[in-house]
Amino acid sequence: MGMIYKRGNVWWIKYYKNGKSFRESSKSSKKMVAKRLLDRREGNIAQGKMPGIHFEKVGFDELAENFLRDYRINQKKSLKRAEGSVNHLKKVFQGTRATEITTPVIDEYIEMRMDTGAANATINRELSALKRMLNLGAEQSPPLVDKGRTPKIKMLAENNVRKGFFEHDQFIAVRSALPKYLRNFVTIAYKEGWRLEEIEALTWDQVDRKLGIIRLEPGETKNDDARVAYLDDEEKGIIDEQWSLRKQAFSRRGKLFPWVFLNRYGTGRIKDFYKSWRKACKAAGVPGKFFHDFRRSAVRNMVRAGVPENVAMKISGHKTRSVFDRYNIVNDADLIEAAKKRAEYLAKMSGAGTISGTVTKIDKKRESTNVG
Question: What pTM was estimated for this model as a whole?
Fold first, then answer.
């Protein structure tokens, strides 16, 4: 049985759940207010619910840590983005109790982020993170958040779909303006249309130099689908050059690095080159270009060269349109033919040879090679 008692001018209540006592202030000098609060708490306990005071002890920091732990446990590829969202949310909600995260407070956060120039898509990612935090809290046992009282979070309208492409001469200009260690890196991106993180993380155990192929295994791509890329002659030359650079790095440092593309100093994988990229784009007369524009460019180049759209999407790893998803079945012969057609098309765009040399036909023997 619970009880009501007075401390100073304020009425308090005491009640029990599973043998544990809870004390809670009614924040009122009126006994009836305390009586109603006690009845509500005991009613919730009778229904198997946690008492409200339990939820009032839970803070944003605990919810945020649970949220990031869920990302780490499930090895989600977007952990870095989730951490960025949490860092922005902390600027307003750190130290706040979960019960104080209400719709009006969230709306104030949205307005604050808009005032700082954040795009709607960015704000939406942060709101999605907050919503996930609250939902995870409600799913805990015992729950950290009262599921029936989670705030409503409205998403903002987004109109930030990018349609940027690199024309061939633009790519040549940007590549020429980049530091030497990045030129092979961006050439693979321009031709294959792979995501930045897929190329950054590319290791030698994914490369078959003899067959001239690169394998991206399940779990190594954003959509977890395996992919096989048949390299044209220029790309095979790039791989050979990177192999030589790896041996040079070993002779200098006595260590064989696993990554195909090394940073400027040959001490590890390529990571952040935003400043070099921005400077190169400006020098090439195409400021504002994004690395991700290579993905659209690669698909467009392949389609223009006569590669079937479903094959182009398979090579680049696109799965954003259902029409391609339904027919996303290709064989090795399709992939080999795609590499040949793309090389021929880009050679014509260059006027002579490949982007940096002369195109020779892909080894006919590779066409009969069955790659699993």
Answer: 0.56
